[in-house]
Amino acid sequence: MEKRKPIITRILENDKGGKIVLSVLFIIVLYVCLANLFIPQESAFYISTYTVTLLGKYLAFALLALALDLVWGYLGILSLGHGAFFSLGAYCMGMYLMRQIGDRGVYGNAELPDFMVFMNIKELPWFWYGFDSFFITAFLIALVPALLAFVFGYLAFRSRVTGVYLSIITQALTYALMLAFFRNDMGFGGNNGLTDFKDILGFNLQSDTTRVSLLMISFFALFMGYLALFMGYLICKFIINSKLGRVCIAIRDAESRVRFIGYKVEQYKLFIFIVSAILAGIAGALYVPQVGIINPGVFSPLFSIELVIWVAIGGRGTLYGAIIGTSALPEVWLYALGGLFVVSTLYLPKGVVGIVTKITTLRNQNKTQKAANVTA
Fold it and tell me: What is the C-alpha separation between 85 and 107, in angstroms, rounded?
């Protein structure tokens, strides 16, 4: 009897690009962690704590880009509001970290965060209950974005809203949430957001070793999110070579025809949309401990649009292209972002990964042609 291959091997078996990207990321993360902890600061090979934090932020953004590529690259749903799911997961983690402060805050109130004491809030709002437990928080990090995705997706897909109209509605969703979270009476810290975190699971967030641990957690969450697209990437890889995959790709290319054949398009879309929202929420939760603050600015539609550009430039419909696109553009290149997005849309529909694929294909064709000429 033939021995079955490990699940990771089976998932990445025909995904050369994914294996290369994940391997490079693993090497980078491992070196950064070891260089920060064990190499003296005077050495040229020392990696600063700032770099550790920066890489942790990148890994969180990469997981978020994967979530968007799942719905955009494989279902054709261009969401301009994925920043909302990211922010909800981030706020869930921020609320947990605020509850861990206890009486070490400025006002010394063990029950209420400092901003609530400052705004004269007498008792903890009901939606803050449960965030003193990490396990309940971890559950809510997935549940809250999933619920929003379910309600929004059910109404939108059931109404058959597609194309640019759906994109505009998703953008309006994240903008509405941004305005709501800016309100001081919402109980989320208003425009200042949540900050001044002390520790996580009993470990000091200001410690270099804790930040390195968070970096490793971020990487493995990205790795598991990349593999376990059994709710994400894994499903996409399985989808491509299955009946389910042919249906999803058909929905992307010709939705009306798929509906005419008899498939319930809305259910396919809703399932993938919810999975994508959960991944985005996890990315947000990993982001907060790295930066030490979360405020309503993350809900900004501009952030969601930048996310779309990362995926477009890296190469949508490839997953690992989204990871590459996340690292390609520093935040200061705001003017270049628009131009690159236009160029990618018009001339590079498959992004950077598409260029590499085309070059490889042409090279293989040339080799085949030369071999045929020699044989003749």
Answer: 32
CA atoms 136, 142, 143, 144: torsion sign: positive
Matching residue, tokens 């994914």: 18
- Among the listed residues 164, 188, 148, the one whose alpha carbon sits nearest the alpha carbon of residue 298: 188
In the block, residue with structure tokens 């990437």 = 233
Do the bridges between strand 293-294 and strand 194-195 make them parallel or antiparallel, or are there none, so unpaired? Answer: antiparallel
- Measured at the alpha carbon of residue 315, what is the angle toward residues 314 and 316, in degrees to the nearest 5? 125
Question: pTM of the predicted model, to two decimals?
Answer: 0.82
* Cα 321 to chain centroid, rounded: 13
> Each residue of 289-311: pLDDT tens digit?
888 889 998 998 888 888 888 88
Position of tokens 């008792």? 123
- Give the span between the Cα atoms of 91 and 193, in whole angstroms: 9
What does the radius of gyration of the chain's CA atoms come to, in whole angstroms? Answer: 22
- Asked if 350 and 361 count as a contact pair (C-beta separation under 8 A), the reply is no
The candidate with the shortest Cα–Cα distance to 313, out of 364, 360, 276, 356, is 356
What angle, 0 to 180 degrees and rounded to 10, lies between the N-to-C axes of helices 163-182 and 134-158? 140
367 strand-pairing partners: none
